[in-house]
Automatic annotation (TrEMBL):
<feature type="transmembrane region" description="Helical">
    <location>
        <begin position="6"/>
        <end position="26"/>
    </location>
</feature>
<dbReference type="Pfam" id="PF00361">
    <property type="entry name" value="Proton_antipo_M"/>
</dbReference>
<keyword id="KW-0472">Membrane</keyword>
<feature type="transmembrane region" description="Helical">
    <location>
        <begin position="367"/>
        <end position="385"/>
    </location>
</feature>
<keyword id="KW-0520">NAD</keyword>
<feature type="transmembrane region" description="Helical">
    <location>
        <begin position="69"/>
        <end position="94"/>
    </location>
</feature>
<comment type="subunit">
    <text>NDH-1 is composed of 14 different subunits. Subunits NuoA, H, J, K, L, M, N constitute the membrane sector of the complex.</text>
</comment>
<comment type="function">
    <text>NDH-1 shuttles electrons from NADH, via FMN and iron-sulfur (Fe-S) centers, to quinones in the respiratory chain. The immediate electron acceptor for the enzyme in this species is believed to be ubiquinone. Couples the redox reaction to proton translocation (for every two electrons transferred, four hydrogen ions are translocated across the cytoplasmic membrane), and thus conserves the redox energy in a proton gradient.</text>
</comment>
<keyword id="KW-0830">Ubiquinone</keyword>
<dbReference type="GO" id="GO:0048038">
    <property type="term" value="F:quinone binding"/>
</dbReference>
<feature type="transmembrane region" description="Helical">
    <location>
        <begin position="270"/>
        <end position="291"/>
    </location>
</feature>
<dbReference type="InterPro" id="IPR010096">
    <property type="entry name" value="NADH-Q_OxRdtase_suN/2"/>
</dbReference>
<protein>
    <recommendedName>
        <fullName>NADH-quinone oxidoreductase subunit N</fullName>
        <ecNumber>7.1.1.-</ecNumber>
    </recommendedName>
</protein>
<feature type="transmembrane region" description="Helical">
    <location>
        <begin position="298"/>
        <end position="319"/>
    </location>
</feature>
<feature type="domain" description="NADH:quinone oxidoreductase/Mrp antiporter transmembrane">
    <location>
        <begin position="125"/>
        <end position="419"/>
    </location>
</feature>
<dbReference type="InterPro" id="IPR001750">
    <property type="entry name" value="ND/Mrp_TM"/>
</dbReference>
<feature type="transmembrane region" description="Helical">
    <location>
        <begin position="445"/>
        <end position="465"/>
    </location>
</feature>
Length: 484
């Protein structure tokens, strides 16, 4: 394949990289007052990347770039579209949050752009070296974003914890990659699959386990979830919203591609690991959230819980299961962004966050619209019909049943009832407790727009998208099995 074709297929990543470098120079030569203009330019670049990415899918183009290091296919287009949408939403709500603290600088949108480039490489990687480069590019910018509020001790602590534990996870992945390379003789996904089909030794199995364990850290799956509550609580809320959405989509997509690609011929070697991680994440996420009083920590455990449901689709190891994963991720992005934007809007007149259940007691009286939006989001996260979150759980459980994993689906359904408890606690506090403080301060229009769109998608209106979303997810999932 010619270099011109390779450059075209990687157009979104190249465009974001060039834009990021240009905006970095602009940031260095301008004052902090230019940060908003830089943010607008970054959002425009991400929107352009989204349109270009979608055009690849619409044109039916799917090809390998740079000698098999990068693949532009329907699966990559679907996942990267979710990544770009989530990143755009998180960038839109960030400036007002940091402006209130006098901490917003042009470096923030630049870091988000480079993070998006890394996530794009993670999703499209068809070689372990490309995967690792994309993973590190995303991770390094994430460490800085977590500690972006330099005058906040919790933010600095979150960044340090994320850096230390993230470095450990990267080392685990790299060790696994070295084992896989040692026993297969190649870093190409296709070559690894061929080598493992001929000879899958105990050493190769250890390599698979180490790679999957490192990626499990990135998706915050149990037992590699310990960083999530502390980082989510300490990081600035717009950054937390970003961590819970875009990087999680990219990491799950990376996990799905590597499980069905190079390791796709050895399903028995990783399926039991994924089943354990799925059930453990559902149970630990649900039980861990019950005793939480801090809203961000509760949503962190909710994120762990949702990863468990996503992994049920992967455990099925079928096109229907992968399609269910993509559908769930699509709905999850809007539920998560809506929830964290609602938390962003929970601020008193002095700009202090309303961070606990006591702070939002009686919210239906002081801010009824915001309370009803939170009610819809919490019920959707709990999977209660007729909200759209129910459909995400339904499709992954259906895929598990079709794969004869009835016990897994039954345990997952039973465990999801536990999770409903802490979501309903939101409703009880907001609608049945007496107000203990003043009404939240007026929120910016940009926050209301993002929240309104998120609530509209997860409302019963979202079911109008099911035929279109299902067809796209099916086509994207089939690409993985076609390539394999």
């Amino acid at each position: 394949m010619s270099y011109s074709t390779s450059l075209y297929l990687t157009g979104a990543e190249i465009g974001l990289s060039v834009t990021g470098l240009v905006l970095l120079l602009v940031t260095a030569w301008t004052s902090e007052k230019a940060a908003r203009a830089i943010t607008i330019a970054a959002v425009a670049a991400l929107f352009g990347a989204l349109l270009f990415n979608v055009s690849l899918f619409d044109g039916g183009l799917a090809g390998s770039a740079f000698g098999g290091l990068f693949l532009a296919d329907g699966f990559a287009v679907f996942a990267k579209s979710l990544v770009y949408i989530a990143t755009i939403a998180c960038l839109i709500v960030a400036p007002r949050y940091f402006d209130a603290r006098g901490e917003y600088r042009g470096e923030y949108p630049v870091l988000m752009l480079f993070n998006a480039v890394g996530m794009g490489l993670m999703v499209s990687a068809t070689d372990l070296m490309t995967l690792y480069i994309g993973l590190e590019m995303s991770s390094l910018s994430s460490y800085v974003l977590a500690s972006f509020a330099r005058r906040d001790g919790k933010s600095s602590e979150a960044g340090l914890k994320y850096f230390v534990l993230g470095g450990l996870a990267s080392g685990i992945i790299l060790y696994g990659v070295s084992l896989v390379y040692g026993f297969s003789g190649t870093t190409s996904y296709e070559g690894i699959r061929t080598a493992f089909a001929a000879d899958f030794s105990t050493g190769a199995m250890f390599g698979v386990v180490f790679v999957l364990a490192g990626i499990a850290f990135k998706v915050a799956a149990v037992p590699f979830h310990m960083w999530t509550p502390d980082v989510y609580e300490g990081a600035p809320t717009p950054v937390t919203a970003f961590f819970a959405s875009a990087p999680k989509v990219a990491a799950v997509a990376m996990l799905v591609r590597i499980a069905t690609g190079p390791f796709g011929g050895q399903v028995e070697a990783w399926q039991q690991i994924v089943i354990f991680a799925a059930l453990a994440s559902i149970v630990v996420g649900a039980l861990g959230a019950i005793g939480q009083t801090n809203l961000k920590r509760l949503l962190a455990y909710s994120s762990i819980n949702n990863v468990g449901f996503i992994l049920i689709g992967l455990a099925a190891a079928t096109p229907e299961g992968i399609s269910g994963v993509l559908v769930y991720l699509s709905i999850y992005v809007f539920m998560t962004i809506g929830s964290f934007v609602a938390l962003l809007m929970l601020r008193d007149s002095e700009g202090n966050a309303l961070a606990t259940f006591d702070d939002i007691s009686g919210l239906s009286t002081t801010s009824p619209v915001l309370a009803w939006c939170l009610l819809a989001l919490m019920f959707s996260l709990a999977g209660i019909p007729p909200l759209f979150g129910f459909w995400g759980k339904f499709v992954v459980f259906q895929a598990a049943v079709q794969a004869d994993m009835i016990a897994l689906a039954a345990i997952g359904i039973a465990a999801s009832v536990i999770g409903a408890f802490y979501y309903i606690k939101f409703i009880k506090v907001m609608f049945f407790d007496e107000p203990q403080g003043a009404a939240p301060a007026a929120a910016p229009v940009s926050h209301w727009i993002v929240l309104g769109l998120s609530v509209a998608v997860i409302s019963p209106l979202g079911y109008l998208l099911t035929p279109w979303l299902g067809n796209l997810a099916d086509a994207a999932a089939q690409m993985l099995f076609y390539v394999a």
